[in-house]
């Protein structure tokens, strides 16, 4: 079985799993991941299938917000089924009825959120016979883990990973030791090494959605506390581009610092060298209309600043779209199909970007899978919903169990329709795997049409 360092620094092509933020809509991601896990398990030798987990395949699992909560559990070796069970139990508890007078405080109880996460994390640690106060350096993480949050006291994106070669991991680590010593002279103090950050604190920081929960505070130095909010408040609610950057950025100077990376990865690029699967948590176009005077509730929401919240959601959607455009502009999909055209479609201007790139040779193989929370799209998948149901599906904090069940069902149905074995090229198989025999033409009529 591979260790964290085998995944991060071992030879061979690398595989990244990127998970979007989206609150309770993380159940969509889990539905899609159930399909991914099932397909990959079939390639494992039969006597090892029961023990297979996604952390065995992916060398780096990264997420934002709810994606971070899923990512840390996957990296700890949890199955998609176990995570889904935990999610369906936690969501109604964390996202109860919204509090009154939320102008002056968060919509939901932050202390209740913390208690639920602490209890859930403690249960996972008990399976490993370990205390819950694990740090980013814990060997219980079976593969690479990356988490995106937003640090609001410094106005910066906060990217954390368990890579022990990264710049802020350890003040004694070469070649960054000189940097730390200079920092100590200038600041008169040394920042807390990233290796010492409590794992659950980092995850919790990424999931502190503004308005929904209070900001998270983490001590980052002897006399300095950082304040953090949800990574979705940055351009990286879909963290794909940030994960790609972290995995591949390095110095190109032909000197002692050649190949040096502040993120510590220095992975190769190329269509058969790097694979990234990006899993969404539902997407939709944010539209804000001025309400009619007769609709008192909508008028109140409009005047109370709800339009500003909708504008923020629109910015998040724009960021996700921009990420998808750039990832497709530097990559190649694993296959050409109607399903990928639909999933990779950006807008009427560039479509699904077939053969459109800003580089001559693709830097990676990239696959995006998501659910579109639009009435016509859902109907095409056999789900008919009214406006009220659609609004509930789009919420980050819907507390209703029937909606949670539908979100997961949407994910599983989408995964079953759009993800297949061709989405995991044999170039990225593990050494002891067998690539399944795949019927190129499951539809006999399709084969005949192509033959003529």
Topology readout:
Blueprint: H1 4-9, E1 14-19, H2 26-41, H3 54-57, E2 60-64, H4 66-75, H5 80-94, H6 110-127, E3 144-151, E4 156-161, H7 177-187, H8 199-206, E5 216-221, E6 224-230, H9 240-248, E7 274-279, H10 296-329, E8 331-332, H11 338-344, E9 364-369, H12 375-380, H13 387-394, H14 401-418, H15 444-451
Could you write a compact summary of the structure shown?
This protein has 452 residues and is of the alpha/beta class.
Summarize the structure in words.
- This protein is of the alpha/beta class and about 450 residues long.
- The protein has one domain: Cytosolic phospholipase A2 catalytic domain (3-Layer(aba) Sandwich).
- About 40% of the residues lie in helices and about 10% in strands.
- The protein has 15 helices and nine strands.
- It has helices at about 5-10, 25-40, 55, 65-75, 80-95, 110-125, 175-185, 200-205, 240-250, 295-330, 340-345, 375-380, 385-395, 400-420, 445-450; strands at about 15-20, 60-65, 145-150, 155-160, 215-220, 225-230, 275-280, 330, 365-370.
- Strands 1, 2, 3, 4, 5, 6, 7, 8 and 9 form a nine-stranded mixed β-sheet that branches.
- Helix 2 (about 25-40) packs antiparallel against helix 5 and helix 5 (about 80-95) runs antiparallel to helix 6.
- The N and C termini lie far apart (about 50 Å).
């Amino acid at each position: 079985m591979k260790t964290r360092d085998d995944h991060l620094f071992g030879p061979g092509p690398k595989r990244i799993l990127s998970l979007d933020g989206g609150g309770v809509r993380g159940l969509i991601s889990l539905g899609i991941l159930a399909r991914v896990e099932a397909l990959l398990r079939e390639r494992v030798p039969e006597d090892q299938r029961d023990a297979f987990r996604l952390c065995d395949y992916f060398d780096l699992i990264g997420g934002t917000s709810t994606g971070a909560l899923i990512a840390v559990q996957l990296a700890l070796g949890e199955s998609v089924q176990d995570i889904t069970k935990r999610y369906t139990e936690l969501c109604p508890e964390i996202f109860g009825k919204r509090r009154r007078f939320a102008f002056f405080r968060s919509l939901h109880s932050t202390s209740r959120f913390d208690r639920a996460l602490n209890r859930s994390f403690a249960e996972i640690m008990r399976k490993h016979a370990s205390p819950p106060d694990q740090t980013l350096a814990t060997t219980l993480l079976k593969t690479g883990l990356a988490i995106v949050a937003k640090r609001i006291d410094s106005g910066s994106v906060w990217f954390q990973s368990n890579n022990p070669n990264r710049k802020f991991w350890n003040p004694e680590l070469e070649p960054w030791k000189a940097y730390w010593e200079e920092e100590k002279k200038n600041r008169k103090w040394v920042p807390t090494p990233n290796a010492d950050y409590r794992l659950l604190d980092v995850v919790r920081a990424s999931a502190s959605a503004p308005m929904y929960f209070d900001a998270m505070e983490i001590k980052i130095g002897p006399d300095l506390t950082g304040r953090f909010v949800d990574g979705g408040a940055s351009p990286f609610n879909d963290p794909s581009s940030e994960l790609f950057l972290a995995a591949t950025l390095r110095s190109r100077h032909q000197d002692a610092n050649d190949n040096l990376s502040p993120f510590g990865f220095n992975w190769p690029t190329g269509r058969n060298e790097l694979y990234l699967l990006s899993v969404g948590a539902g997407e939709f176009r944010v539209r804000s209309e001025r309400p009619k005077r007769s609709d008192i509730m909508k008028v109140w929401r409009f005047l109370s600043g709800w339009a500003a919240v909708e504008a923020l959601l629109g910015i998040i959607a724009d960021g996700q779209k921009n990420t998808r455009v750039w990832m497709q502009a530097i990559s190649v999909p694993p296959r050409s199909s109607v399903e990928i055209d639909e999933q990779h479609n950006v807008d009427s201007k560039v479509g699904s970007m077939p053969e459109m790139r800003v580089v001559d040779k693709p830097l990676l193989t990239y696959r995006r899978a998501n659910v579109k929370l639009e009435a016509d799209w859902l109907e095409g998948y056999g789900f008919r919903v009214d406006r009220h149901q659609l609004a509930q599906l789009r919420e980050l904090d819907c507390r209703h169990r029937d909606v949670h069940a539908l979100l997961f069902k949407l994910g599983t149905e989408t995964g079953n329709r759009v993800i297949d074995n061709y989405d995991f090229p044999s170039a990225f198989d593990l050494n002891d795997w067998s690539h399944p025999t795949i019927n190129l033409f499951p539809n006999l009529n399709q084969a005949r049409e192509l033959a003529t």
